[in-house]
Amino acid sequence: xxxxxxxxxxxxxxxxxxxxxxxxxxxxxxxxxxxxxxxxxxxxxxxxxxxxxxxxxxxxxxxxxxxxxxxxxxxxxxxxxxxxxxxxxxxxxxxxxxxxxxxxxxxxxxxxxxxxxxxxxxxxxxxxxxxxxxxxxxxxxxxxxxxxxxxxxxxxxxxxxxxxxxxxxxxxxxxxxxxxxxxxxxxxxxxxxxxxxxxxxxxxxxxxxxxxxxxxxxxxxxxxxxxxxxxxxxxxxxxxxxxxxxxxxxxxxxxxxxxxxxxxxxxxxxxxxxxxxxxxxxxxxxxxxxxxxxxxxxxxxxxxxxxxxxxxxxxxxxxxxxxxxxxxxxxxxxxxxxxxxxxxxxxxxxxxxxxxxxxxxxxxxxxxxxxxxxxxxxxxxxxxxxxxxxxxxxxxxxxxxxxxxxxxxxxxxxxxxxxxxxxxxxxxxxxxxxxxxxxxxxxxxxxxxxxxxxxxxx
Length: 458
Description:
Strand order of the largest sheet: 1-2
Helix content: over 70%
Distance between the termini: 40 Å
Number of helices: 19
Largest sheet: 2 strands, antiparallel
Shape: globular
CATH class: Mainly Alpha
Strand content: under 5%
């Protein structure tokens, strides 16, 4: 039989767990690049507006759905419509399957972060140049056994955390890890902002800061708005069932609107400060500020840490920070399907968690093998993408927008906006609450925005 549902032990426990889920690797290697490329402070303003008009209402809706039903989405959507909306269980199925597919490669990347933190400790970055970092990353990609080993370490750590239950596992881990993340981020930002030019041709930290945040409204094009829309959607973590599951653990008098705003604010703040870590350092060492993704993290930054005084410490701290950010997101990505399948199939949380993790790991093996140029798996492509990239594309560009679109339609035509408003305002105090003028946002603006994201992904 499924175990009795727990509640969050405290309000801060929910906020930190939800923020930990939202704060991930994209905050470190994608958001700062977008801000610097698309107009600095101008892009930031557009991003915040999109979060307020689209991200916050939909996040509040998913949390409210969870609290109303006190069930995971596979079962809860049917219950909320009086048992007449069995097809709407697809919201839970799509979100949970997206979590499994996403984690099949995301756990691999978290493992990379741990691997590089150990490399930094051992001084592997000392005196390294561009060709050296590329060779190091290429050698790592050609070591599937090592990658699988680090991935199994992540699997074990996640499994041990989530099987401890909500309060003793998920909540306790996030209440411990999020403050550590914040402290490490501030320390790294302070170090970066106080740097002076370190090489001939290097510029000042202030110049890096200006490049990052100076508003340039001429760069706010349609492409910039779409980039902000996609980043807000994926960073907050909409359309993946986790917010619904986390909401189902809330007490009836919890303040969903205010707590959701705290979550989105923490997610955005972490991403902004991550840019303060990266760009001043890049400018001081004369590096390309348009680096992003794998190139930024695994090829550019190790060069800086290799030249920086105390680089062993700072490199280890950065990669451990990235690993923890990925790990707290991984807790949320695991909790959603593990809790949902335990409830749906009537099995224990422990059995469901390890079964889901096994599926994630097995699905991740082809992704690991596809990364090695020497492996036959690297020759297999799906729609022109490697197995690794296709897993990212399928979960992030297709399944998540589809699931969020289904939630928006469900709110408008099944649950009804008035019920959504009334439920989410239970426990709300002050000015932050769901208002009637949100109705066109939920019924029209959000579905259109999600269709645009989905169209770009297809």
